[in-house]
Amino acid sequence: ASYRITTDQNGNVVDKDGETFQYASAGMHYFRIPFQYWEHRIMAAKSAGMNAIQTYVAWNAHEPSPGVYNWAGSSDLIWFIDVVIAAVMSLILGVGPYIC
Fold first, then answer.
1. Residue percentage of the chain with pLDDT more than 90
2. Which of 11, 23, 54, 57 could form a disulfide with 92 if both were Cys (CB 3.0 to 4.6 A apart)?
3. At a CB cut-off of 8 Å and minimum separation 6, what does 95 contact?
4. With contact defined as beta carbons under 8 Å apart, do 14 and 98 qualify?
5. Is pTM beyond 0.70 here?
6. Long-range CB contacts for residues 38-47, cutoff 8 Å, separation at least 24
7. What residues contact 32, with CB distance under 8 A and at least 6 apart?
8. Helix (H, G, I), strand (E, B) or coil at 27
9. Residues in Cβ contact with 53 at an 8 Å cutoff, skipping those fewer than 6 apart
């Protein structure tokens, strides 16, 4: 799905495809949850009234040592994104080299 998201000058109003959009997000760190539970946890958030999932990309989960990359199991970011999309929810993705 493709859509356009913009905000007003102050960042107070989110516009999604020409309509005001208010999100209610659940924070979910995919790399800390066994991948077998992702769908259940996402659907539980949706059942609780959430319409978005918020997560960070934890680079230490994807590059545990220099030059060694891990994109499998609970580190499979693309699979996690696909599960969120399949649940018809928005995703707020925090990208960066370091998270606390």
1. 62
2. 54
3. 56, 57
4. no
5. yes
6. 38/79, 38/80, 38/83, 39/83, 39/86, 39/87, 42/83, 42/84, 42/87, 42/89, 43/87, 45/89, 46/87, 46/89
7. 74
8. strand
9. 25, 26, 28, 42, 45, 84, 89, 90, 91, 92
Q: How does the average pLDDT of the chain come out, rounded?
A: 89
The answer to whether residues 91 and 78 touch, using CB atoms and an 8 Å cutoff, is: no
Report the pLDDT averaged over residues 11-21: 78
**Over residues 69-98, mean pLDDT:** 92
Amino acid type, 65: S
AA letter at 59: W
User: Which of 54, 53, 83, 58 is CA-nearest to residue 71?
Assistant: 58
**pLDDT, average across residues 14-37:** 90
